[in-house]
């Protein structure tokens, strides 16, 4: 516990005095205008994000009634966006990650947007290559090469230590 409470890490000020949510919002604002950016939060975390989202238009905040994980947050947001703009190019930026090299991140996001705008029937997925056997995160197994990346052959949900080491 960093703050002495059960605060989720995205609401913690781990590096540089800014929360991970704040860092994510700042990074995203470099590639997506605030008028086209939604923030998905969970009602039970309001005491942590209330002040952080002050000033953000209420129609840009999607409040889930319960925390059911990332995939449900994505679906919740997609259903909301589909009503507003069924042809939208949508990106998700979980706020519980830290990126040391903001410029490299921005460049990758811009490339992903360019690919998504030309490959309208595809989902573009970005990942980071593990530096060591990692069992805390899902793995993206690349498939056949594309012009700017690879098809996804398979997604491995948090592999076992044995699989991660092989």
Total of DSSP H or I helical runs spanning 4+ residues: 5
Radius of gyration: 17 Å
Characterize the overall form. globular
- Number of DSSP E strands: 4
Class per helix and strand makeup: alpha+beta
Q: Considering DSSP H and I runs of 4 or more, what fraction of the residues is helical?
A: 25-40%
Please report the distance between the alpha carbons of the first and last residues. 33 Å
Uncertain spans: none
Give an overview in words.
With 166 residues, the chain is α+β, with helices and mostly antiparallel strands. It has a domain of 89 residues. The strands form 2 sheets. The chain has a two-stranded parallel sheet. β3 and β4 form a beta hairpin.
Brief sketch in words of this structure:
The chain has 166 residues and is α+β, with helices and mostly antiparallel strands. The protein has 5 helices and 4 strands. It has helices spanning 20-29, 46-49, 70-84, 102-118, 161-165; strands at 39-42, 61-64, 139-146, 149-156.
Please write out the topology.
Layout: H1 20-29, E1 39-42, H2 46-49, E2 61-64, H3 70-84, H4 102-118, E3 139-146, E4 149-156, H5 161-165
Parallel strand pairs: 1-2
Antiparallel strand pairs: 3-4
Q: Which characteristics define this entry?
A:
single chain; 166 residues; alpha+beta; two-stranded parallel sheet; two-stranded antiparallel ribbon; 5 helices; 31% helix; globular
